[in-house]
Amino acid sequence: AETGFSGNLFELAARGGSWKCTWASDTSGVAMTGTVFVDRGKFKSDIETSAGGITLVAHTLSDGAFIYSWTSASQQGTKFPMGDVVAEDAVPATTKEMEPFVEEFNFDCDPWTADSGTFALPSGITFTEVATQ
Questions:
Q1: Please, what is the Cα angle at 59 between 53 and 61, to 5 degrees?
Q2: What is the rounded CA–CA span in Å between residue 34 and residue 100?
């Protein structure tokens, strides 16, 4: 059964259970579609943004301790402690990719059977730890 959920990504991950959720938005000529996989506090978010004929995919993965962020356009990614974000609702100034996490979306969710490969970090991406305080 499909279930709706309204909130931000952290609230979605905190609700518990295993879900595959999708959302979409279209603002000022920028179309975004997102897919989020949630399993026991971990999450992986894939967001496709299309504007002016260019498509970019932004990925974010949380293993419960760190948040990792990377895009299809670069081999450089960032990571930072999850507590920094959740504690203060802080949006690290260094990563614009974090904006989707504090925005509210209407998600359509289906129960999902977790697959360990979903939460594996990609090879070929170098993650640099950034301070958010």
A1: 170
A2: 10
Contact assessment for residue 69 and residue 42, using Cβ atoms and an 8 Å cutoff: no
Average the pLDDT over each of 51-60, 86-95, 122-131 and give the range with the smallest value: 86-95
pLDDT value at position 94?
A: 44
pTM over 0.90: no
Query: Do residues 43 and 117 make contact, with C-beta atoms less than 8 angstroms apart?
Result: no
Bridge partners of residue 3, in order along the sequence: 109
Q: How, if at all, do strands 105-111 and 42-51 pair?
A: unpaired
Q: What is the pLDDT of residues 12-35, one digit of tens each?
A: 888 888 999 999 988 888 899 999
Residue 68 phi/psi, 5° resolution? Answer: -110, 140
Q: What is the rounded CA–CA span in Å between residue 71 and residue 68? A: 11
Structure tokens given for 12? 């979605």
For residue 79, list its beta bridge partners: 68, 129
Q: How many CB atoms lie within 10 A of CB 30?
A: 11
Say which DSSP state 74 is in. -
